[in-house]
Design goal:
This protein is an alpha+beta fold. About 20% of the residues lie in helices and about 40% in strands. The strands form six sheets. Strands 3-2-1-4-5 form a five-stranded antiparallel sheet. Strands 8-7-6-9-10 form a five-stranded antiparallel sheet. It has a five-stranded mixed beta barrel with strand order 11-12-13-15-14. Strand 16 and strand 17 form a beta hairpin. Belongs to the bacterial ribosomal protein bS1 family.
Length: about 550
């Protein structure tokens, strides 16, 4: 009876052992550390199975193993028995499976996960997420490029999962997303405490061509170069340096884009408020040339106050010349205030107005008739341009080149660069014109020769040439021509050959033409005039006396 009972108990125990659930290979099971030896932890996973795990599998990157006898741990059962009859287990694989479950849930909930950067790979870094290894791209490390990631290595910090694929074992995380989110929260808080017009302190973080970025305590504002000072600032580095603390005013806040515009000059007195009183119209002041353009030059009267000297107001004499050939940057010049427009913040200045008008000076020092000397600057179809004192030009018209030659012929005698003398004939200051005459240098010979001669005068001329149509005569160096019909009252005496070169002949002046510089002469007119005079003095044609009698009597009277 006892023997049957024992057999029944053994059979029951045997059946119980067969019916007992054994752990499935490839699953995570719980175990207990029963010993630590030779750098390994011996773990009882139950079911009369023990396995060994390297101690390093219980350590986080950069840390010492955290394990001791009696600890309960989860391990991954790779195989129930190896050649030594031990279970093949892995703590690392268990942690990975556990981590993937946890990370998939965090990814689905868009939650942050904690991890530590422990290695560098091509294009980024590796991150331990508590058993699962993720890839951190270099562009996702920080909001700005990171030159040295050393301080971040091994440091536990939050990450955002961007993408994960359990089948392929890929996880991509971002540290930058966390920073941007916290930064956005911080920006929103800082911006919420700022108001337009408020004066705050900030630190210059970056300088560009167009301005500087100023850190206001977690949020950056742009200080544009035009808002740094009332004066012209060519580059922000002239007045700012990185790391410098500056006081700025909040000009504008864009609540949607979180962009903040800042200003420094707004905290200073506006110099334009006093421009009208400090720079009355017509006054002359010293200034410094700050900028030169095609249309003029900007001159700084004081910091913040600049005026434009238009190219037309730069020089009395240099027309159509680039302003850069008259003044240079940083040059100190005297300028006159011509116009002020406070609304548009503009001042019109004049450079030439600080110097006397050279045409006025020339008119005072060179009245009409003054003899001048200068270089032929230009030759045109209507005359010569002569360089004069004061860097101005005078013009000699074709008609003023010679008494004896046509202007078109006379101008051929001159070349550019010739030194010539001339006489000032007219100065028009308003039109900036000076008229000169070369032919007037020796005086007006015609005027001198015929100064006392009038129409009707009897003068004595010398025959210089005999021609078919008449004779050429000379009076005081001036040539004239007497036509055949004017050689005598009698047609039979109107013969040029009856005269000889060198003969002295009395003639009557019939015309004085200053333009053609010619005298109209006639022997016939003289004879007729003498006849009329004789008749009036010694008788009339009605008395019966012949002309010969009257003339004879007149001649006889003259002899006595």
């Amino acid at each position: 009876m006892a023997q049957n009972t024992t057999m029944e108990e053994f059979e029951a125990l045997l059946n119980e052992s067969f019916e007992m659930d054994t752990p499935e290979e490839g699953s995570v099971v719980k175990g207990k550390v029963i010993a630590i030896e030779a750098g390994q932890a011996i773990i009882d996973v139950g079911y009369k199975m023990e396995g060994r795990v390297e101690l390093k599998e219980f350590a986080n990157p950069g840390e010492a193993p955290d394990i001791s006898v009696g600890d309960e741990v989860e391990v991954f059962l790779r195989s129930a028995e190896n050649a030594r009859g031990e279970a093949v287990i892995s703590r690392e694989m268990a942690r990975r499976e556990e981590a993937w479950d946890r990370l998939e849930k965090a990814y689905a909930d868009d939650a942050r996960v904690e991890g530590a950067i422990f290695g560098r790979v091509k294009g980024g870094f590796t991150v331990d997420l508590g058993g699962a290894v993720a890839f951190l791209p270099g562009s996702q490390v920080d909001v700005r490029p990171v030159r040295d990631a050393g301080p971040l290595m091994g440091l536990k910090q939050p990450f955002q999962i961007l993408k994960m694929d359990r089948r392929r074992g890929n996880i991509v995380v971002s540290r930058r997303a966390i920073l941007e989110e916290s930064r956005a929260e911080q920006r929103a808080e800082v911006i919420g405490n700022l108001t337009e017009g408020q004066a705050v302190d900030g630190v210059v973080k970056n300088i560009t061509e167009y301005g500087a970025f100023v850190d206001l305590g977690g949020v950056d504002g742009l200080l544009h170069v035009t808002d740094m000072a009332w004066r012209r600032v060519n580059h922000p580095s002239e007045i700012l340096s990185i790391g410098e603390t500056v006081k700025v005013q909040v000009i504008k806040i864009n609540k949607e884009t979180h962009r903040i515009s800042l200003g420094m000059k707004q905290l200073q007195e506006d110099p334009w408020d006093l421009v009208g009183a400090k720079y009355p119209l017509g006054t002359v002041h010293k200034g410094r040339v700050t900028n030169i353009t095609d249309y003029g030059a900007f001159v700084e009267l004081e910091p913040g106050i600049e005026g434009l000297v238009h190219v037309s107001e730069m020089s009395w004499t240099k027309k159509n010349v680039h302003p850069g050939k008259i003044v240079s940057t940083s040059q100190e010049v005297d300028v006159m205030v011509l116009e002020i427009d406070p609304a548009k913040r503009r001042v019109s200045l004049g450079l030439k107005q600080t110097m006397r008008n050279p045409w006025e000076v020339f008119a005072e020092t060179h009245p009409e008739g003054t003899q001048v000397e200068g270089e032929v600057k230009n030759i045109t179809e209507f005359g010569l341009f002569i360089g004069l004192e004061g860097d101005i030009d005078g013009m000699v018209h074709l008609s003023d080149l010679s008494w004896d030659e046509r202007g078109e012929d006379a101008i051929q005698n001159y070349r550019k660069g010739d030194e010539v003398q001339a006489v000032v004939s007219e100065v028009d200051v308003e039109k900036e014109r000076i008229s000169l005459s070369i032919k007037a240098l020796g005086g007006d010979k015609f005027a001198e020769a015929v100064g006392g001669v009038k129409r009707g005068s009897i003068i004595t001329v010398t025959v210089t040439s005999i021609e078919d149509g008449g004779i050429e005569v000379e009076y005081e160096g001036m040539k004239s021509f007497i036509r055949r019909s004017d050689l005598s009252r009698d047609r039979s005496e109107q013969r040029p050959e009856r005269f000889s070169v060198g003969d002295k002949v009395d003639v009557r002046v019939t015309n004085v033409d200053s333009k053609t510089r010619r005298l109209g002469l006639s022997i016939k007119a003289r004879e007729i005039a003498e006849e009329k005079e004789a008749v009036q003095q010694y008788g009339s044609s009605d008395s019966g006396a012949s002309l010969g009698d009257i003339l004879g009597a007149a001649l006889k009277s003259d002899d006595t």
